[in-house]
Known about the structure:
By secondary structure, this protein is mostly helical. The chain has helices at 2-6, 8-24, 29-46, 52-63, 66-81.
Amino acid sequence: MSTVLSNFESWKKFLGDRIEAAKDLGIGEDAIAKLAYEIGEFLDNKVDPKNEEQRVLKELWDVGDESERKTMAALMVKLAKHS
């Protein structure tokens, strides 16, 4: 996992692969977005950013309210799907 976290392109691909796997299991977009938010909360509290992109995302997450964080999570899902 540390290799995945150290490179932002690897991180986006990892997320994209997991999103596709979830969709293949029949998990809907709303559930995926909710899970992305929960993962964002976990990462914010437990994982130190490994690169500049992750540091920017953490800083944005930290200043955002719950609604803005949910929007960020949904945008990360979209970004990962296009990677």
